[in-house]
Amino acid sequence: MLNTIIWDMDGTVLNTLYDLKTSMNYTLEMFNLKSHTIEEYRHAFGNGVRYAFEEVVDNDTPAELIDKMLPVFKEHYDKHCMDKTRPYEGIIDVMMTLKNRGYKQAIVSNKIDSAVQELYEKFFKECVDVVVGEKDGVRRKPAPDMVDEALKELDSSKDMAIYIGDSEVDLATARNSNLTCISVLWGFRDKDFLVESGATEFADSPNDILKIIDRL
Predict the structure, then answer these.
(1) Alpha carbon distance 183, 191 (integer Å)
(2) Is residue 134 exposed (0-12), middle (13-18) or buried (19+ Cβ within 10 Å)?
(3) d(CA 100, CA 51)
């Protein structure tokens, strides 16, 4: 019987794209590199900040330069991660409904852990029990490490958990963790792309999540 929900953060419970774009472009401009649009970043994020930079810079950009860019991004994003970031409409209500039904909940994110913790304190402290961000000793998604850590902290198990995300990275994370995945359609990827990535359960709105969970 399901009693645990593992949520992705960016594109699933939080619309973070505008603040990510601002910090990415700030960093690129600091290094005299070309800035990019919201749509370009929409497809770049999901696998961590380094991957996002690798996706938008020229192919011949040295890895050493990206190494220098990461702390610049982190410092800027830590200060500005809540400028425009907000939960998607209706998502907090769904989380509170699940909490009131007795579900344990965690958020796992490839976002830098300091930002994950700050966003948790701001938006999710009342309804989510555990959050895990990118940090030393825990492999980023799609490795199952973050899910494993969350389940351990929740004192739950994989046979009682379900995963909810918006990207191919989340689908792979769920597969690697032996969890069923609900793919939300308001995030960073479109339905056709998710179908190609193996998605089978879709939520058009946050309330659809409750219907799917009741059915599973």
Answers:
(1) 9
(2) buried
(3) 37
Cα–Cα distance for residue pair 107/169, rounded to 1 Å:
15
Contact 54, 64 (CB under 8 A): no
Question: In Å, how far from its chain's centre is CA 191?
Answer: 17
Q: Which amino acid is at 137?
A: G
Each residue's pLDDT tens digit, 127-174? 999 999 988 999 999 999 999 999 999 999 999 999 999 999 999 999
Provide CB contacts within 8 A for 155, sequence distance 6+. none
Kindly give the pairing relationship between strand 104-112 and strand 201-203: unpaired
Residues of the chain with pLDDT below 70 are none
What lies within 8 Å, CB to CB, of 23 at 6+ separation is 73, 76, 77, 80, 81
Q: Are strands 180-184 and 201-203 parallel, antiparallel or unpaired?
A: parallel
